[in-house]
Amino acid sequence: MATSYSVVRAFSKRYTPSFLSPLLLSFNVCNLSFFPSSSSSVALSSEAKKSPARACSSLSASATTMSFSSSYEKELSVAKKAASLAAKLCQAVQFELLQSDVQSKLDKSPVTIADYGSQALVSFVLERELPSESFSLVAEEDSGDLRKDSARETLERITKLVNETIALDGSYVIPPLTAEDVLAAIDRGKSEGGPYGRHWVLDPIDGTKGFLRGDQYAIALALLDEGRVVVGVLGCPNLPLVPINTVDKLAVDSARGCLFSARIGAGTHMESLDGSQTQKVHVSATENPAEASFFESFEAAHSMHDLSKNIAQKLGVQAPPVRIDSQAKYGALSRGDGAFYLRIAHRGYREKIWDHAAGFIVVTEAGGVVTDAAGNALDFSRGRYLDVDTGIIVTNAKLMPLLLNAVQAAIRESQSAASL
Ligand SMILES: Nc1ncnc2c1ncn2[C@@H]1O[C@H](COP(=O)(O)O)[C@@H](OP(=O)(O)O)[C@H]1O
Ligand SMILES: [Mg+2]
Ligand SMILES: [Mg+2]
Ligand SMILES: [Mg+2]
Questions:
Q1: Which atom of ligand 1 is nearest to the CA of 109?
Q2: Any idea which positions bind Mg(2+) (predicted)?
């Protein structure tokens, strides 16, 4: 710990204005206590073990104690613009979705012209609105497959879509982008991220499988500054503006399309994607799991449904799981649609920062707590991957100690069953 402390002090001296150093120092030292060297076994960090409640409240407080409320306003408004434009592009594609739009990447996940178009568009807007020599974007897609001869027609369609969306917006009076411009915009997302400086983090379509099914998906954009998430935006074109469990189907279907936005120290807001009805949102305040519901991935391959079921039973949750795709889960949780999000990936899967950065700040600024299954805070400063212990869990500060206990017990049971 002594070594870590001096490293943090040296770091904060070198990269931080003097008036912020003490704050950064206490923030990092607090966070370091939640990052024991990564371990494959499931164990609570020592502080979480001693007092889960204290650990959780300091986790949630760590994001808000630093006063950033006047910072990152411009970045947030540009991020909202970029995500809204990308959402328009995605909506147009989903409307006309044909099976032939699906390409197969080497990892066999479906990638559509909307993934590429959304990434090109967000990259274009960020660079144009926030010009900077040190512009850095960590994004999911790259142009490798699109540069192949066989993809020429797809690239033309993407270029046309991007230009049509820019023209529709009307705020950029520029000659149309060429196919080469589009490829270059996509490839600006190759940054490795890391602990120093600013990095945008983009999932151009999170929940591609949901998108292809016509279900939930999200355009997820976040900003890291010195390794911390400071801005996050989730465009969720298919998410109803009313709570997801609303019984009145007419109300659910009549207004869809939510934009969640969060800035460090300034809370989380939700508005409709067309710009009306802005409201501040907060996670559920319930302290009683019996009256709560939980979210998990629609795809059983992405999260262990049996384990979540066992965790929910231990907590006494009565409601069936709410299975939806993408970081729309974080958005729905931030406005109190449910009280838990459980994501326990199958063994060997490494989470990526773009699958969680925007959702993380949307939930934490709404009063929620996000940890891995061992109670450690998430560390977005280590590059493109997010190394977590076993899984990611989300709830409010009151319920987190209960949730951690249930998760730990369920994991222990499944480990001992597997060793029989
Ligand atoms: N085996 C796996 N385990 C966990 N997550 C996975 C996975 N395979 C893919 N994913 C990630 O799960 C994300 C979707 O999350 P969800 O299940 O909540 O909808 C995908 O994002 P993309 O759709 O952007 O590729 C992908 O990054
Ligand atoms: Mg993907
Ligand atoms: Mg994703
Ligand atoms: Mg994606």
A1: 25
A2: 140, 203, 205-206, 355
Measured in whole angstroms, the distance separating CA 252 from the mean position of its chain's CA atoms is 24
pLDDT digits (tens, 9 = 90+) for 178-213: 999 999 999 999 999 999 999 999 999 999 999 988
Nearest residue (by CA) to ligand 1, atom 5, is 302
Domain around 49: 42-66+283-419
CB–CB of 317/290 below 8 Å? yes
296 contacts 321 by C-beta, under 8 angstroms: yes
Which pLDDT belongs to residue 417?
A: 86
Provide the whole-model pTM: 0.84
Which ligand is nearest the CA of 302, by number? 1
Is it the case that residue 64 has pLDDT exceeding 50? no
Residue 104: partners with Cβ closer than 8 Å, 6 or more residues away: 110, 111
Q: At a CB cut-off of 8 Å and minimum separation 6, what does 99 contact?
A: none
User: Which distant-in-sequence residues (6+ apart) come within 8 Å of 130 by Cβ?
Assistant: 74, 75, 78
Same domain, 51 and 82: no
Of the candidates 153, 180, 196, 162, which has an alpha carbon nearest to the alpha carbon of residue 10?
196
Expressed in angstroms and rounded, the spacing between residue 355 Cα and the centre of ligand 4 is: 8
| Res 105: pLDDT | 55
Question: What is the helix (H) or strand (E) element at residue 220, kind and residue range?
Answer: strand 218-225
Ligand 1-lining residues (CB < 6 angstroms)? 109, 140, 203, 205-208, 210, 297, 299, 301-302, 325-326, 345-346, 349, 352, 355
Pocket test for ligand 1, best of 304, 347, 355, 385 (most atoms within 8 A of CB): 355
Is residue 19 one of the residues assigned to a domain?
A: no
> What is the pLDDT, as a whole number, of residue 47?
37
Instruction: Assess whether 294 and 410 both reside in one domain.
Output: yes
The binding site for Mg(2+) consists of 140, 203, 205-206, 355
Same structural domain for residues 273 and 288?
Answer: no
Determine the Cα–Cα distance for residues 364 and 262; give it in Å rounded to an integer.
Answer: 9
The strand ranges marked E within 28-186 are: 103-104, 110-111, 137-139
The answer on 366 and 315 residing in a single domain is: yes
ipTM of this complex prediction, to 2 decimal places: 0.99
Model pLDDT for residues 97-140, shown as the tens digit of each residue: 645 555 555 554 457 899 999 999 999 999 999 999 999 999 99
